[in-house]
Recover the amino acids of this structure.
């Protein structure tokens, strides 16, 4: 389940606040189904109880009607309960505490490994992963869920993530306005500075932007951090020494992947190397590349790969022709020697 596109569009038009202002404006906790509460009525032990908010947002308390407290703050819920008990008690004193909070549901979109709707609790053990590969590196966190916890829950950043452009959007309960703050994690990583790591609340939407131009040092830093899986799977097929699925580093380029498969075979067509990629929208992306011994590692002809990419190395035309003629002429070899035809073709 994903947040509709019109939500993302509206959040881009909403007010951009600093992180401190954002937290002050929309940082309150509101109760919802699954929250467990302890309710005490002073001097009335028989009325004190523990309850869990039901899926419809209601709670059942002794000797008063069912109350709906979904979306209310602790203080608002306390006043509501207090008003109901005034029908039984002259001046009721109510104590209301959260025993256990429900997991919050947030949506992560953009340049993360696996975008979508996630549930976050106060204790998480997340494995940085790509769509096809789970890492052995597990990240454990305790305490109220934060932005970084959510990124790790979604498998981590991709090499195309713009860490300078992370937007956190939240809907104000009273006004209905969507308020957005922009977060720059790259400054924190590159300068070993304080992390902007705000707490998250139910319904928050995080959008990680896509970087316009790739920078080698940034890609290396992200790929070797606790925000990105260290490996991914690519499938190298065709005329290489050891074809098949290869586990490579997340910042691997095309030629590195080919060398991980043992390099080109003798009959490989180095002028026709095809990348086949499944896009997030379900379409198939394909592009041809040529091998050149003089190209540098940062050459556009040697692109970065993505998890799940298929690399196809074709055979050269001469090898194709020989195989075709061999298959075609094998039934008539007793009459016409294939070597004569080959020699004629080569001439």
């Amino acid at each position: 389940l994903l947040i509709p596109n019109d939500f993302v569009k509206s959040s881009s038009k909403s007010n951009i606040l600093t992180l401190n202002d954002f937290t002050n404006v929309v940082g309150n906790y509101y109760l919802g189904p699954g929250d467990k509460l302890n309710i005490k009525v002073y001097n009335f032990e028989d009325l004190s109880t523990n309850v869990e908010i039901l899926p419809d947002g209601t709670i059942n308390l002794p000797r008063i009607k069912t109350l709906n407290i979904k979306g209310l703050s602790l203080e608002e819920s306390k006043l509501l309960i207090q008003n109901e008990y005034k029908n039984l008690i002259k001046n009721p004193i109510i104590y209301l505490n959260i025993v256990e909070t429900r997991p919050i549901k947030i949506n992560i979109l953009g340049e993360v490994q696996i975008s979508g709707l996630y549930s976050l609790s106060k204790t998480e053990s997340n494995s940085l992963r790509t769509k096809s590969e789970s890492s052995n590196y597990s990240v454990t966190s305790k305490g109220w869920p934060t932005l970084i916890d959510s990124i790790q829950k979604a498998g981590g950043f991709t090499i195309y993530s713009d860490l300078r452009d992370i937007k956190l959007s939240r809907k104000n309960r009273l006004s209905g306005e969507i308020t957005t703050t922009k977060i720059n994690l790259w400054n924190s990583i590159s300068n070993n500075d304080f992390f902007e790591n705000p707490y998250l609340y139910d319904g928050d939407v995080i959008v990680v932007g896509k970087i316009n131009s790739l920078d080698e040092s940034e890609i290396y830093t992200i790929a070797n951090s606790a925000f990105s899986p260290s490996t991914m799977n690519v499938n190298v097929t065709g005329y290489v020494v050891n074809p098949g699925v290869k586990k490579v580093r997340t910042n691997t380029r095309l030629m590195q992947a080919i060398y991980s498969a043992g390099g080109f075979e003798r009959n490989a067509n180095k002028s026709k190397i095809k990348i086949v990629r499944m896009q997030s929208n379900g379409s198939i992306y394909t592009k041809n590349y040529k091998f050149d011994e003089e190209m540098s590692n940062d050459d556009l002809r040697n692109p970065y790969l993505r998890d799940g990419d298929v690399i196809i190395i074709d055979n050269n035309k001469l090898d194709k022709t020989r195989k075709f003629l061999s298959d075609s002429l094998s039934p008539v070899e007793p009459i016409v020697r294939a070597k004569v035809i080959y020699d004629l073709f080569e001439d």
Residues 1-14, 332-342 have pLDDT under 50 and may be disordered. The two ends are 63 Å apart (CA to CA). The first helix runs from residue 5 to 13.
